[in-house]
Amino acid sequence: MARKALKIKQQRPQKYATREYNRCKICGRPHAYLRKFGMCRLCFRKYAHEGIIPGVKKASW
């Protein structure tokens, strides 16, 4: 889990646009962020397996 202070720090408007970065909306993880879904790969995998994300299913070929 991300520290609460870092989540709050990220939400503030930054002085320069290059300092802005994305965080997972669920757990706050800053790395492995999927823009299309707004969450990190770990939360994406969890919710995809549970069937919460519509249109996503595990690939098998």
Automatic annotation (TrEMBL):
Binds 16S rRNA, required for the assembly of 30S particles and may also be responsible for determining the conformation of the 16S rRNA at the A site. InterPro entries: Ribosomal_uS14, Ribosomal_uS14_bact, Ribosomal_uS14_CS, Ribosomal_uS14_sf. It comes from Calorimonas adulescens. One of its GO terms (cellular component) is cytoplasm. Binds 1 zinc ion per subunit. Keywords: Metal-binding, Ribonucleoprotein, Ribosomal protein, RNA-binding, rRNA-binding, Zinc. Part of the 30S ribosomal subunit. Contacts proteins S3 and S10. Belongs to the universal ribosomal protein uS14 family. Zinc-binding uS14 subfamily. GO terms for molecular function: rRNA binding; structural constituent of ribosome; zinc ion binding. Its cofactor is Zn(2+). Zn(2+) binds at C24, C27, C40, C43. It comes from the Bacteria. This is Small ribosomal subunit protein uS14.
